[in-house]
Amino acid sequence: MQGLIPGMLPPTDTLKTNLVFALIVFIVYNVAGVVRNGFGYLAHFLGPKIGGFPWLFFLFLPIEIVSHLARPVSLSLRLTGNIVADHKVVGVVALMVPLLVPLPFLLLGTVVAIVQTLVFTLLTIIFIGLAVEHAEEH
Predict the structure, then answer these.
(1) What is the H or E stretch that residue 109 is in?
(2) Is residue 20 over pLDDT 90?
(3) pTM of this prediction?
(4) Residue closest to 72 by CA, chosen among 40, 120, 33
């Protein structure tokens, strides 16, 4: 919301801030998974035990690692991209027609900030929920 004040940038305007937020989420959901399920949580990286395909672990392991490493990258890039795009649109419109025309875009910026907050929070909740669920065979 700080970015709606002319001349001020929000903290989420830079990738480094968003990456730190996403890394905190990454650490929290992995720690929550280990705390809830013990080190059996790490067994899900090797693939499902149901179905009897333990020899496919060499395929599942890299896929799961890349999948989990992509989560903080996705969270941070999504948030940065949407916030930066919002401010670029408002800036261009304000330069073209500076009087009263940027007002609807500022209101749209408020909606963007609220939606991005909800998306980041919802994805964090989903990641934690997936990490702490107790699978029967893992």
Answers:
(1) helix 102-132
(2) yes
(3) 0.81
(4) 120
